[in-house]
Specification:
There is one protein chain. This protein starts with a strand and ends with a strand. The longest helix has 14 residues. The model has no long low-confidence stretch (mean pLDDT 94). The strands form two sheets. Strands 1-2-4-6-7 form a five-stranded mixed sheet, with helices on one face. Strands 3-5 form a two-stranded parallel ribbon. The chain is an alpha/beta fold.
Length: 101
């Protein structure tokens, strides 16, 4: 899997670290990253510190993740965004659906 997963000690927080390119080629890996072994997860953090490029399919993956986990997860965060990626997220109005920093 090309995406890194990290759980907090209490298993209530999952952090998924995306690669430098976050696009359609990551669909399968991303789905596995956010949907396996998450019984106790309440917060999902997507760390984009490596990500220099993301396309519309990445935006769709983020929305699908939120939709699929909304019954369980109460907080969705996107962190460490580079300026060009932050601009994409702001144009797509993701600041209304995710906490972005």
């Amino acid at each position: 899997m090309s995406l890194e997963r990290k759980f907090s000690a209490d298993k209530k927080q999952l952090t998924v670290v995306a690669d430098d390119i976050f696009d359609f080629g990551k669909v399968q890996d991303f789905r596995i990253a956010f949907s396996t072994d998450i019984d106790e997860v309440e917060t999902v953090i997507i760390d984009l510190h490596k990500t220099a490029y993301m396309d519309s399919s990445a935006l769709g993956m983020l929305l699908n993740m939120q939709k699929l986990l909304s019954g369980q997860v109460t907080i969705f965060k996107i962190i460490n965004t580079r300026p060009q990626v932050l601009k994409i997220l702001q144009i797509a109005r993701f600041d209304k659906k995710f906490l972005i920093s």
